């Protein structure tokens, strides 16, 4: 393999891992993974067989479906000490769910996306089911991705908006000018609001959580039905979100640094 091919292969393998994670409940077929990644089926099959030899993916002998492999679990457990913040966030999620009655989520930034890494159900019986642990969304989409994007430097926002086009999958309400307007509003309020842009009647609000360098690395969000997000209550929810996001930022700033 020449040097020009290596980055392409790495990109394809990364896309496969993310597709398996996104589709995995009882496993994913080769054809489904080809559709999800946009790669040719023979290419996907060849990569999966090679990854299986390394224990990075696993194939069910009866169904033929693929899932993430045991070697990934072992590698992930080693990386968890540096990247997993769910233990430290659990009390914050629980308290925010109790205070608001809504479903609460913690999302982490991964490049141009956010991935939901933890959740806590609220007491209110009607819930939005747009978010779930493992879902990936582009920056600027949903309240978590919007609030993280809004807290980035202007040059990073401009760079992202100039190359990212999410309207094809998420609708014209996510055009660059629409996202820019919501960024301005988010910066004014300190928190982001998603007024049912992904699923009609399903609202969300988010506040950024910062790493030790002051970068927006995570986001807390609450989601629920539209009737629970009237203007007056949005101000109350925003204050609660900002308070708990600041609390989590402080908790993470005090965590022990990994050695290496």
Automatic annotation (TrEMBL):
- A Pfam family cross-referenced in the UniProt record is IclR_C
**Source species, domain of life:** Bacteria
Q: Which residues form the IclR-ED domain?
A: 71-254
Checking InterPro entries in the record gives: GAF-like_dom_sf, HTH_MetabolicPath_Reg, Tscrpt_reg_IclR_C, Tscrpt_reg_IclR_N, WH-like_DNA-bd_sf, WH_DNA-bd_sf
Record's keyword annotation contains Transcription: yes
The protein's UniProt keywords, in alphabetical order, are:
DNA-binding, Transcription, Transcription regulation
Chain ranges of the HTH iclR-type domain: 13-70
Q: Name one GO biological process term.
A: negative regulation of DNA-templated transcription
GO-annotated molecular function: DNA binding; DNA-binding transcription factor activity
The protein's name in its UniProt record? Putative IclR family transcriptional regulator
Which classification does the entry list for the species? Bacteria, Bacillati, Actinomycetota, Actinomycetes, Mycobacteriales
């Amino acid at each position: 393999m020449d040097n020009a091919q290596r980055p392409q292969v790495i990109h394809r393998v990364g896309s496969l891992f993310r597709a398996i994670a996104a589709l995995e409940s009882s496993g994913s077929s080769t054809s489904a993974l080809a559709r999800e990644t946009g790669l040719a089926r023979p290419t996907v099959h060849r990569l999966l067989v090679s990854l299986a030899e390394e224990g990075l993916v696993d194939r069910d002998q009866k169904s033929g479906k693929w899932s993430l492999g045991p070697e990934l679990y072992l590698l992930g457990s080693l990386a968890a000490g540096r990247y997993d913040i769910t233990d430290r966030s659990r009390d914050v999620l629980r308290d925010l769910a109790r205070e608001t009655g809504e479903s609460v989520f913690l999302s982490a930034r991964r490049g141009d996306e956010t991935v939901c890494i933890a959740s806590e159900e609220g007491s209110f019986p009607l819930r939005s089911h747009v978010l779930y642990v493992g879902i990936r969304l582009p920056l600027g989409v949903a309240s978590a991705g919007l609030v993280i994007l809004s807290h980035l430097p202007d040059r990073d926002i401009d760079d992202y908006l100039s190359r990212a086009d999410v309207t094809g999958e998420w609708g014209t309400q996510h055009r660059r000018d629409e996202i820019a307007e919501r960024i301005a509003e988010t910066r004014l309020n300190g928190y982001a609001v998603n007024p049912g842009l992904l699923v009609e009647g399903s609202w969300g609000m988010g506040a950024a959580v910062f790493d030790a360098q002051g970068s927006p690395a995570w986001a807390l969000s609450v989601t629920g039905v539209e009737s629970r997000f009237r203007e007056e209550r949005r101000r109350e929810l925003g204050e609660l979100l900002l308070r708990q996001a600041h609390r989590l930022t402080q908790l993470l700033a005090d965590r022990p640094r990994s050695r290496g």
